[in-house]
Amino acid sequence: MSAAPIPRFDGASATSADVAAAVAEDGVCIVERLVDEATCDAVLAELRPHLDAVRPGADDFEGRNTRRVGAILGRSSSSVGLIAHDLVLDVVDRVLGPDKSTFQLHLTQAIAIGPGSPAQGLHRDQWCFDFHPFPPELVVEVSTIWALTDFTEATGATRVVTGSHRLPSVTATDADATGATMPRGSVVIYTGSTVHGGGANRSDETRVGLNVDYTLGWLRQEENQYLSVPLEVARTLPESVQRLMGYSLGSYALGYVDDLRDPISVLRPDRRDTGFGVD
Q1: Of 21, 68, 108, 115, which cross-links 72 as Cys (Cβ 3.0–4.6 Å)?
Q2: What pTM, to 2 d.p., does this model score?
Q3: What is the model's pLDDT at position 278?
Q4: φ, ψ at 16 (rounded to 5°)
Q5: pLDDT score, position 87
C-alpha cells in the first residue's frame, strides 16, 4: 500500500449518507468543524482537572507522556453534544448496517498526547474483542476522534491507513499512513478494522482528542458505562443517551433485568411496560 488522502467533508453541509458512504468505501473520513470552538472549550475545561490528575501511560502503546481519562459522560456534561451528535449517530447506524438490532456506546476517552511523544503503534480498534477474526463483511465497530485542539502533523494528528479495513491482516507500515489533520471541532470517523495510531508530537503543545467508539449491541463494551458513569449522573441524561450507554436491550432477550424488564426501567421506572416479556 501507499499513503492515500482521507476523504473530507464540511460540517456545515455534510450529509450522513455521504459520510457513511465514504467510511464504507475508504474506511475513514473527516468532517471538519462539526461543532464550534466554544463547545471544545467547555469540554476541555470540564476534563482538564481529570487529565491533570491521571498518571501518564504505563507502556509505549498507552504513551509514556500521554494521559487518558474515561467516564466522559460522568465528567463532562458538555460532551453529550459530541457523543450523541445526530450526524455521527446516523453515520454509525448506516455503517454498521441494516442487519443489526441495536448499537451502543463502546468507549469514551479523552487522550492528551504530550510534547515529545513518539508515534503509537498501528493497530485496529476491534482487536479489543480478544483479536477475534470477524468476517471481513461484518462491521462491528465505528470509532471517532474529535479534535478538541487542532490536529496537525507537528502535534501528533492520528495517522490512518486509508482503505486498510479491507486488508486481511495488518501489513501496513507508517509509510502507508496519512495524518488526520483537522481544525478543532472536527471529527475523524473510521471503522474498527481500519488501521491507525496516534501520531508523534514534535511540538511544545499537548494535542487533546476525544475518542468515542460505538459497537453492535450484542458485543461487550470496552468501557463499562454502568460503572464508569455514576447512577445518579446517568439518571440526569436524556433517555436517548441512556439507551446509547447500554440501558436498553441489545437484541431480543439480550440484557434484560430481573423479571424480563428492559434495563431502561432502572433509570426510568415509568418505562416498566417496555421491552422483552411484554404481552
Answers
A1: 108
A2: 0.95
A3: 41
A4: -65, -30
A5: 98
> Could you give the C-alpha distances from 253 to 199, 212, 239, 262, 276, in angstroms and in order?
42, 27, 20, 9, 6
Q: Which residues 6+ apart lie within 8 Å of 260 measured at CB?
A: 253, 275, 276, 277
Whole-number pLDDT of residue 275: 54
CATH number of 8-248: 2.60.120.620
Q: Which residues of the chain have pLDDT under 70?
A: 1, 272-279
The residues spanned by each domain of the chain are: 8-248
From CA 154, how far away is CA 54, in angstroms rounded?
24
The C-alpha cell of 266 is what? 432502572
Q: Look at residues 81, 89, 85, 84 and name the one whose alpha carbon lies nearest to residue 46.
A: 81
> What is the 3 state secondary structure string of 203-262?
CCCCEEEEEEEEEECCCCCCCCHHHHCCHHHHCCCCHHHHHHHCCCCCECCECCECCCEC
